[in-house]
Amino acid sequence: MDYKIIKNDPYLEPYKKAFDYRVNSYLLKKKELVGVGELSDFANGYFYYGIHPTKNGWVYREWAPGADAMYLTGDFASWDIYAYPMKKLENGVFELELNGKDTLKLGEKIQAIVVRGGEVLRRV
């Protein structure tokens, strides 16, 4: 690939492979995001992922494309790791809706449980 920056500054020619690597990495990542939305949507993922209050309680979303299943546990669930299974959506997204504004309380501890290939992984 020809780069305008190298044409403008020939001293950068020895670094052409580094430019190629960066551009190809960018293009691969951009291709991965097809169907996910705009690049700005990806950058603003924190508005969608994580724990957020809803009209009726809470919603928790996590991106775990390699997971077979996910659960949410914590103080609110008496640490029963299988009490709150998450629903697997498209593109490796898992979601759990919790009814009741008081289901989660400030200062409580929670943990995401990821199941992959029969292995149970605990994630903060």
List the helices and strands and how they pair.
Blueprint: H1 4-8, H2 16-32, H3 39-43, E1 50-53, E2 57-63, E3 69-74, E4 87-88, E5 93-99, E6 110-116, E7 119-123
Antiparallel strand pairs: 1-2, 2-5, 3-6, 4-5, 6-7
Largest sheet: 4 strands, antiparallel
Question: Share of helix among residues?
Answer: 10-25%
- Could you give the distance between the termini? 43 Å
Mean pLDDT: 91
What is the overall silhouette? elongated
- Specify the oligomeric state: single chain
β-sheet strand percentage: 25-35%
The parts where pLDDT drops under 50 for at least 5 residues are none
User: What strand line-up does the widest sheet have?
Assistant: 1-2-5-4
Tell me how many strands there are: 7
| Rg calculated over all Cα atoms | 21 Å
Figure out the total of helices. Answer: 3
Structural class comes to: alpha+beta
- Report the order of strands and helices: HHHEEEEEEE
Notable traits:
3 helices, 31% strand, 124 residues, 4-stranded antiparallel sheet, 3-stranded antiparallel sheet, 7 strands
What does this structure look like?
By secondary structure, the chain is an alpha+beta fold. The chain has 3 helices and 7 strands; from the N terminus they run H-H-H-E-E-E-E-E-E-E. A 4-stranded antiparallel sheet has the order 1-2-5-4, with no helix packed on it. Strand 1 (50-53) and strand 2 (57-63) form a beta hairpin. The mean pLDDT is 91.
